[in-house]
Amino acid sequence: MISEIGPSPRDHFPTAGHLASWAGLCPGNHESAGKRRSGRPRHGNVYLQPVLVEIAWAAVRHEGYLKSLYHRHVMRNGGYRSATAKGKAIFTVAHAILVIIWHVLATGKPYDDLGPGYFDRRADPEREAQRLIARLEALGKHVTVEDAA
Questions:
Q1: Distance CA 19, CA 38 (A)
Q2: Hey, CA dihedral for 86, 38, 96, 132, is it positive or negative?
Q3: pLDDT score at 39
Q4: Which backbone phi and psi does 103 adopt, to 5 degrees?
Q5: Residue 36: what pLDDT?
Q6: Is the pTM of this model over 0.85?
Q7: For 111-129, how does the pLDDT look when each residue is reduced to its tens digit (9 = 90+)?
Q8: Where are any strands of DSSP class E within the chain?
Q9: Looking at residue 93, what is its pLDDT?
Q10: How far apart are the first and last CA of the chain?
Q11: Whether the Cβ atoms of residue 148 and residue 129 lie closer than 8 Å to each other
């Protein structure tokens, strides 16, 4: 990793996004006339990309933020039966790992995992309840909500 990006990545890459773009781990963008089409990721560093993908596969097998990020993106892109969804999710985790590496090398601070429940804690329960009620009412159901005892 260090042989490709150097011991102080801030010298060559002002932000983590610049490093991700150079490595080819940023999402592609293909938009025309306001329509978003399939944006394939760009070609990047041929040595760094496969290593980060292998690291991502290892990372999603252990409890923590990266595993929950993987699960979230697999479910967003089609579920665990879809190989495409798993590939996109691993690419997302590889991007997150590269951003983590940039921050660790640029600041000198150790990585502090956000934990497996990060996305659950982040959501506002009241707002989530209102969203689910609105979805049920859109399906023509009448909803009465009472607090649990």
A1: 22
A2: negative
A3: 67
A4: -65, -40
A5: 74
A6: no
A7: 988 888 888 777 778 888 8
A8: 30-32, 35-37
A9: 94
A10: 53
A11: no
